[in-house]
Design a protein that fits this description.
Strand 1 and strand 2 (9-12) form a beta hairpin. This protein is mostly helical. It has two domains: 3-73, no CATH class; 98-264. It has helices at residues 15-29, 33-50, 55-94, 106-110, 112-121, 126-137, 165-188, 205-215, 232-236, 253-264; strands spanning 3-6, 9-12. The radius of gyration is 22 Å and the shape is elongated.
Length: 267
């Protein structure tokens, strides 16, 4: 038996408690990544709310929370490690035209671990999540005056003023859901050889430019074929010298993606 203590009373886990805990852990092991991340968040909330009510709840939900996170983190670490060389190769292939005087902002990597967790859960490149955040709000931890949030999703109203961790996490998840829906929309309208296949472990050049077009604005209004963004600067600025002009210079999606990719493969 496992003995635990909460406040001023002792409790002893029953055989049934231990059996249920073992059964739930087996379920967690076989859960998809996104479900496992969701379970971790739910167990965290349950532990926070119910842990102070009963020591048994505190033990059970703390145990499940930590187990879910460990399983999730181990999977993510394996995916990160096995894809590192491919990411380095991608950076080397395209870095030649990268304009280096627009350096990677510390703001963009300050929340890296959280963004990395969410991106892995939704099988989305972490570097691309950060690149969009940069292009839309300079990786700002604030609520823009237009109410569209850090990722500028016009269908959402995040309000203005102070941002909280909870709002920021919700904005990240909203972006990833929005992005995945855009990709699914494109893939439904195109043959398999044209479909976007970006994932947590990497993306092709065509994946990235198609995604930028879907997220920002389609050049010709159609979702079929090799789509391009209406604003080339949105994708290429900071990468192609002829687009790096004027007083306002800011890395586009591709340049920022490469910079984050270079940074994260050194971890």
């Amino acid at each position: 038996m496992i003995l635990g203590i909460w406040s001023s009373w002792w409790y002893e886990l029953t055989t049934g408690d231990n059996q249920n805990l073992t059964s739930l852990k087996q379920t967690l092991v076989s859960s998809p990544d996104k479900d496992l991340w969701s379970y971790y968040q739910q167990f965290s909330k349950f532990q926070e709310v119910l842990g102070g009510v009963d020591g048994r709840f505190d033990y059970l939900f703390t145990n499940l929370r930590d187990y879910a996170y460990t399983q999730f983190s181990n999977r993510k670490s394996l995916a990160k490690q096995t894809s590192k060389e491919a990411k380095k190769d991608f950076y080397s292939q395209y870095q030649e035209n990268l304009l280096l005087h627009d350096e990677l902002s510390e703001n963009c990597i300050g929340w890296y671990n959280s963004i990395d967790n969410w991106s892995y859960a939704y099988n989305f490149p972490t570097a691309l999540t950060i690149a969009v955040w940069w292009r839309e709000s300079s990786c700002g931890y604030y609520l823009p005056k237009n109410g569209d949030g850090p990722f500028q999703i016009v269908s959402k109203d995040y309000g203005t003023g102070e941002i909280t961790k909870e709002i920021f996490y919700q904005a990240i998840e909203d972006f990833l859901l929005f992005a995945r829906n855009k990709i699914d929309w494109y893939n439904r309208n195109n043959d398999e050889d044209k479909q976007i296949t970006l994932s947590y472990t990497g993306a092709t050049y065509q994946d990235l430019i198609k995604f930028a077009a879907l997220y920002n604005w389609l050049d010709n209004g159609t979702v079929v074929g090799d789509v391009m963004p209406k604003s080339l600067k949105y994708f290429f600025e900071g990468y192609q010298s002829d687009l790096w002009t004027g007083d306002h210079k800011k890395n586009g999606i591709f340049a920022q993606y490469l910079k984050v990719l270079d940074w994260e493969t050194t971890l």
